[in-house]
Amino acid sequence: AVILGIESSCDETSAAICIDGEIKSNIIASQAIHANYGGVVPELASRAHQQHIIPTVDQAVQHAKIHKNDINAVAFTRGPGLLGSLLVGTSFAKSFALARQIPLMEVNHMQAHILAHFIEDPKPAFPFLCLTVSGGHTQIVLVKDYFEMELLGQTLDDAAGEAFDKTAKILNLPYPGGPLIDKYAKEGNANAFKLPEPQISDLNFSFSGLKTAILYMVQGEEKKNPNFLSERMADVCASVQSRIVSILLNKVKKAAKETGVKQVAIAGGVSANSGLRQALLDMGTRYGWEVFIPKFEYCTDNAAMIAIAGYQKYLKSDFVGQDVAPLARMHV
Ligand code: ATP
Ligand code: MG
Ligand code: FE
């Protein structure tokens, strides 16, 4: 079957073609405009999706060397995400399916981040643990089957991606700051600055205390030395990144111990972080886990993960009707 996947939950418009479970194209149109505002502006995002959606789908079709008539079904992100953004992808997918009289599959964006692990080998076997870390979410999920997922823990305040992005703002770095902190961290000393680890006994996370600690630390240092940030950027970034990674992985370690599950995956935009990837690999070696790390292009938002999730729904004839509406909030 030829499946068209559509993603429009935040600020990436993406379309992908999946043929019999294989991704043939994955086109991503990012929206640079938000960098001017230090974060995603919902109204601008939905307008940009409207401009990008048709050319992005056209490119995905061309790149896969198929014709639009060859498409057998459409999968789209129903939520969670920005409602205005979701509406563009949802409306496009519904119209496309209606006009061509083909089935429609709704996909949960957070499940899709996890199911990105089924795009290429090696694929995890069920059950496995997945740490999903993105711009809006931080979750530890026990993945029992493609669409049977149990939330073991989540953030009580900021998401891990937000912790990176808000820290970047404190450091006067542009949005999104995660990739830049990653870059500076490579040159820095992770032990240069002591940052707190929240004391939470269950599998939940908190990042707001860390954010405040970073703010006070930077303000204090800048009083002593106005050039603090320019002189110590790499050390600050390395210390922040190392603390975020240790907060995340200490909970993964706890979840693996409690569940006895030894297959551990990461997913979502922050899984592109090189410090997290390396630390998870090291931990896997130490604890005898089989570790799954997505390719960079499947970490941040993309339609390949939507198409692959849609393919699994297609196999079960799990379709939705034209009355389906997007949802800003959805659980895994
Ligand atoms: P959600 O999936 O929760 O709805 P989202 O779709 O906006 O949120 P993603 O696109 O999955 O999130 O991820 C974006 C986030 O990933 C941003 O916060 C960004 O800073 C972060 N990120 C991307 N690359 C890196 C990196 N190398 N290091 C740290 N963070 C990163
Ligand atoms: Mg994004
Ligand atoms: Fe996402």
From TrEMBL:
<dbReference type="InterPro" id="IPR017861">
    <property type="entry name" value="KAE1/TsaD"/>
</dbReference>
<comment type="function">
    <text>Required for the formation of a threonylcarbamoyl group on adenosine at position 37 (t(6)A37) in tRNAs that read codons beginning with adenine. Is involved in the transfer of the threonylcarbamoyl moiety of threonylcarbamoyl-AMP (TC-AMP) to the N6 group of A37, together with TsaE and TsaB. TsaD likely plays a direct catalytic role in this reaction.</text>
</comment>
<feature type="binding site">
    <location>
        <position position="113"/>
    </location>
    <ligand>
        <name>Fe cation</name>
    </ligand>
</feature>
<dbReference type="InterPro" id="IPR000905">
    <property type="entry name" value="Gcp-like_dom"/>
</dbReference>
<feature type="binding site">
    <location>
        <position position="301"/>
    </location>
    <ligand>
        <name>Fe cation</name>
    </ligand>
</feature>
<keyword id="KW-0408">Iron</keyword>
<comment type="similarity">
    <text>Belongs to the KAE1 / TsaD family.</text>
</comment>
<feature type="binding site">
    <location>
        <position position="182"/>
    </location>
    <ligand>
        <name>substrate</name>
    </ligand>
</feature>
<dbReference type="GO" id="GO:0061711">
    <property type="term" value="F:tRNA N(6)-L-threonylcarbamoyladenine synthase activity"/>
</dbReference>
<feature type="domain" description="Gcp-like">
    <location>
        <begin position="23"/>
        <end position="307"/>
    </location>
</feature>
<dbReference type="Pfam" id="PF00814">
    <property type="entry name" value="TsaD"/>
</dbReference>
<dbReference type="InterPro" id="IPR043129">
    <property type="entry name" value="ATPase_NBD"/>
</dbReference>
<feature type="binding site">
    <location>
        <position position="273"/>
    </location>
    <ligand>
        <name>substrate</name>
    </ligand>
</feature>
<protein>
    <recommendedName>
        <fullName>tRNA N6-adenosine threonylcarbamoyltransferase</fullName>
        <ecNumber>2.3.1.234</ecNumber>
    </recommendedName>
</protein>
<keyword id="KW-0963">Cytoplasm</keyword>
<keyword id="KW-0819">tRNA processing</keyword>
<dbReference type="InterPro" id="IPR022450">
    <property type="entry name" value="TsaD"/>
</dbReference>
<feature type="binding site">
    <location>
        <position position="109"/>
    </location>
    <ligand>
        <name>Fe cation</name>
    </ligand>
</feature>
<feature type="binding site">
    <location>
        <position position="165"/>
    </location>
    <ligand>
        <name>substrate</name>
    </ligand>
</feature>
<feature type="binding site">
    <location>
        <begin position="132"/>
        <end position="136"/>
    </location>
    <ligand>
        <name>substrate</name>
    </ligand>
</feature>
<keyword id="KW-0012">Acyltransferase</keyword>
<keyword id="KW-0479">Metal-binding</keyword>
<feature type="binding site">
    <location>
        <position position="178"/>
    </location>
    <ligand>
        <name>substrate</name>
    </ligand>
</feature>
<keyword id="KW-0808">Transferase</keyword>
